[in-house]
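Pair request: fold both.
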Amino acid sequence: MPEFIKSLLKPIGASYIKRKIEISKRNGWRHAIFKSETRFYKRLVTGYYKGEWKNDKKEGKGSELNRNGFVYEGDWLDGKRHGYGVLSQIHEDGTICMRYIGQWMNGKKNGFGYSWYKNDSYYEGEFYQNKREGYGRIWYCNGDHYEGNWKNDLPDGIGIFVKFSGNRYEGEFVAGKKEGRGTFYHIVTGQKQSGIWRSDSCISSTMSDMYLRQSAPIPTPYPIPRNKWAKDSEIKDVYKMDNDNTKEEEVPFPTCKRPLKRIYPNICVSVNTCPCLD
């Protein structure tokens, strides 16, 4: 075939292949686009996606079952979870557990959501890049509860931590530990502790009784005396009285009339041995 004919047919063939590729791209709703079969919990599970496509990528509404047994139902954009969606997990016995409900961005939890963990803890609040960050509250599996600010998946900032016994701490947190100013309410004993905390330990504080100390489960045997702070007017009156007493009474100091004794080393002599000082 002559070269000039080949040169004419080359763009025609290229455009034909390009059209075929565009036609073969998945667009719109597609049902059960299966993935390869994988072994999951000693049985074969086939991953699939059912939903909308655009330019051969998942985009719109759809549901997907992956090889690890997680089922996602919600919004997609550019082949990633993006928008509002629900994530659940299928266990070996066939039960389905909810894992997350909320906002997604670029395939990660981002925004407000509800999360259930494997240890039966529950969190509701803000997420950023799959981590708890912002304001949120969590109920731990042991009965403890925290509500406040989060950063990098840990309590950070102002928050309230309530233990299962009822005792609670209100104050500042840094990297999951009590750090800064805070108040610890000893509900069991009926006392309040306000002070400074470092690395989850109190370094300086003031203890006082709560109003409901007698109603506490194990109240302290004796109450703590309350301190009464003086008012500004009272402080000024005391200062004025001190200034009015310009003349100070001289208090006689007893002195010995006998001459000084010679001090011998390693011999202890009492101060009141002289009869003049009696």
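--- second member of the pair ---
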Amino acid sequence: MRYHVLLLSLWALMLSACSSDSGGGTTIDVHLQDAAGLSANLDRIILGGEKEMLRSATIDDGGHFTFAFDQPLADGLYQIRVGAQKATLALADTDREITIDGQLGSFGDYDFTVDGSDSALETAETVRTISQVKGLEELERTIDAVENDYTAAYITFNSLLRAGEQGLPIHERVVARLPQDDANRINYTQYLDQLRQQIAFQKSQQLIQPGNPAPDLSLPGPDGGTVSLSDLRGQVVLLDFWAAWCRPCRQENPNVVKVYDRYKDQGFTVFSVSLDGVDDRQAERLTPEQLEEARENHRQKWIAAIEQDGLSWDNHGSELKFWSGEASAKYGVRAIPATFLIDREGNIAEVGLRGAASIERALQKVL
């Protein structure tokens, strides 16, 4: 019996020893010359989001300070701040004992050594390299060569903030490397959605002018089918952006109905685009089931508004994405109601028509 108890005790000690050897938290030991007496902070960084302060420390007379954690720090981006100097580094959850050695005055230039973390070392080396990179192609090659996904995202996000459409493919490739549910990926994706909308709006300001071809739209209809603006070529079309929730739109609808009823037999029709629905930011906070339910609720409100306002034409479409849809971005729509009169050749004839008389005057010129 004693023999069995002894064996069990030894087995427990062995398990404990193995656990101690393979476990342990993360420790970051830093030495910065000329930093004695200052305070240091360690923050968790989310791209495009808020910082989370994890630890603070007072720097001793020798310029040393330590951030110690009982558990390993998760994969991600972390920033060390000392006064006005700061450096952001990627860490891996396998990092245990990290040492950084440098000078306070050049810390923000990443002029320091790193031991114990390949991820942090790569971040520092890449930041130093990136300042010498010339041109988008060289930057792209540099980013593609980065092994740590968080370092690649951090460098790309900060280097290409003003690159516009040219930088979009690099942004998209880097975002795809991040874990699906990671906060950095979520924030980065939101930034890219905004960037795409901004690019589309800028293009629309050049394209959506009288005399220019009207961009085609293909949208889901109320019954689940697809309605396309190009299918109406040969007719004069009033492209009308509206929504069931938009009071000015609902007040304008009787004017549109009046003109439609008067000229529908003369080659005139209406293509209505609804901005009902759930935008991308709201959608990210919902489960797939909740999102489907929310969009179906908005779809029913849209259908009810069509019936209530007597919008009897067949051409109704909506992405059910509120202001996140591509249709509104393509036409540069930032407020509704918004209208565009399109002639029989598919060119924009007039924009911003309000009131039955205004629509009718413009219509008579192109019928």
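Observation on the second member. The longest strand covers residues 27-33.
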